[in-house]
Amino acid sequence: MKPLPEIRPAPRQRTRVLLLADEAMSDGAQRQIVHLARGLDRRRFEPTVLHACQPAPDLARELDDAGVPGLRLPRHGRVDPDFLLRLVRTLRAGRYDVMHGFALPGELWGAVARRFVPAVRRPVLLSSLRGGCEDYSPWQWRLKRWVSAQSRGIVANSLAAARLAGTRMGLPVEAVELVCDGVVPAPPPPQARQRVRQELGLCPTTPLALFAGRLAEPANLPTLLRAMQQLQGARPELRLAIAGDGPLRPWLEREIAALGLRQRVCLLGERADLADLRAAANFLVRPSLREATSGVVLEAMASGLPVIASRGGGNAELIEHERTGLLFDARDAGALARAMATLACDGPLRLRLAAAARARVQQSHGVASMVRAIERRYDAALDQRPFPAASLARTTG
Fold first, then answer.
1. Where exactly does CATH 3.40.50.2000 map onto the chain?
2. Residues 6 or more apart whose Cβ sits within 8 Å of residue 362
3. Using 50, 70 and 90 to split pLDDT, how confident is the model at 25?
4. Which of 111, 236, 268, 270 has its CA 20 to 30 A from that of 43?
5. Model confidence over 280-299: pLDDT tens digits?
């Protein structure tokens, strides 16, 4: 009898991953998408980024340079049937295996669109819990719960976000997988510190605090300005640079003038050179009322810039008080002023906090470890391993 011919299994094709980017995402979330798309093992994964909003030019260039395809699919308004139709066509044509959302609008549209794709070609959905969910209204939490019921997995970037999901959606913390954001310190170009300080009219020894972020209510900028006002007598030499834009900018301009801070507080607007600004500053201030994991804080810690941040949320997970940074209660302008005064004059403390913070980030927030954790989550989703979040989300609805 002739032996049967050897049958070799067909090699497994690469997993096609569609990463959903939309206007509700923070700059930090967009940066994580870039890290993930660039870092996925190309022997096993084939990433594509779908932009429902205008991508940041520098991040789009990084994706292009890494050979990651990008799809521009603009969405207009909260209800856009044409966008839904185009998204359905995209999913059918792309034959994606996994669709990964990073904010509620993209996840919601993706969850709806995939229901119009034949089951054999329907991608599994992964959803996220990140900064911004703290401000969801009750109806947004109902939508999030529905999206979670369609998801094969939920990934949070902080314990604070996972606990919030437990409170608002009836999920145990174990139902959400924690994957810490990754960060790569961006070294500033030579002479960055000198250039920025000359631009701001500062001498080399003038202490400079930096705020970077969206100028909106969660940033808690009124507390920051009150702290600067309290420091006019104790630390009149301290300067504050505010980088970013948002709806509070007109109010900030008026309040800075009303408090007599025009000579000490500088509004820089939106800046693409945050690495340069970090090099010029003596410390970062992050007084947020609420947030999950702050990419701004992570990048400052990775680059060796000491951080003062409000307690609660993801900040308290990143920073150990008086070891890797300084923490204060978000509404306590006096405590913030005292922390700023301390770092403004204590160079050895700044160096000690910066070194410990950099080591903490290198140990727990490497991009490679973040990417490998997400890859394992994709594998588990495709293998249809049981994931408790979906069933629990259904029972709470």
1. 15-182+367-396, 192-364
2. 302
3. low
4. 111
5. 999 999 999 887 778 899 99
